TrEMBL record:
Keywords: Thiamine pyrophosphate. Pfam families: Transket_pyr (PF02779), Transketolase_C (PF02780). It comes from Kribbella caucasensis. The keyword Transport does not apply. It comes from the Bacteria. This is Transketolase. CDD domains: TPP_PYR_DXS_TK_like. Its cofactor is thiamine diphosphate. Belongs to the transketolase family. The keyword Cell membrane does not apply. Residues 14-179 form the Transketolase-like pyrimidine-binding domain.
Amino acid sequence: MTVVDTSIADQPRYDCRDAYVETLAELAHEDHRIVGVVNDSVGSSKLNSFRKAFPDRLINVGIAEQDMVGVASGLANGGRIPFVSAASCFLTARALEQIKADVAYSNTNVKLCGMSPGVAYGELGPTHHSIEDIAWLRAISGMTIIVPADPVETAAALRWAAAVDGPVFIRVSRMSVPQVYPDSYTFEPGKAITMRAGNDVTLISNGTVLWRAMVAAEQLAAEGISARVLSMPSVKPLDVEAVVAAAEQTAGIVTAEESTIAGGLGGAVAETVVQHHPARVSILGIPEFAPTGSAGYLLDRYGLSPEGIADTARRLVS
């Protein structure tokens, strides 16, 4: 896979919610079964244009997340393909029992779209941060978990999800990110993408942090450190083969994600390494209830800037 441009930090930035609503509308035009279900989050999900185009195919249950997931499950049982759109912190926390029982355990064809995940709502504090969503959904059997890195991957993940039967969770970022994939990109579950080859250390990332890992690799290259960069949009299923190869072929692995350090991408990678090929792993993420502050400030605070990722890699290889 060839990335759009090596100077990724200088590229224009995009809100992945725009790709989300555009793609959802395209899918709805193609398939009458596709509907949206929201929790009074039409504006924050940028679904106003979808509501205008499909007024009878957007169900707003109000601020009732458990009901929202239950309604989506009922729609799926009736032959519809519901895309549930809500702030990830409320979708996955308040409705976790319904996600477990009504969606995953029942193997219902519901697509859960966690909007504005991670620390996107930085100034609203820990109640609105969604750093645990990946960890607790990973513990639920049968749930595919996707963390797209840019608008191209967001659109590709939605198209894939619409075409498969079964539960899917997709994070949809509101934090502006550069485009890192070519327009021809196609999402494939359980597959990592090599964004940069390298033999000294491996950086594994996804979501809003991937481009930062790519910049970190550029910084390391200037110092003579060859960093492999793996994009891991599919947290579950995980590309075990790519992780084991990184453990075997480089001095160690640094994972970087906009998520808790317990049970997210880093946890999945560490579990794989310890079972298949023990190696050094450094997990970068958010280790606590993050304070109030802008998303950029919070990422920098926890070492998720390009400089922070590069510094962790330096310590690992030394």
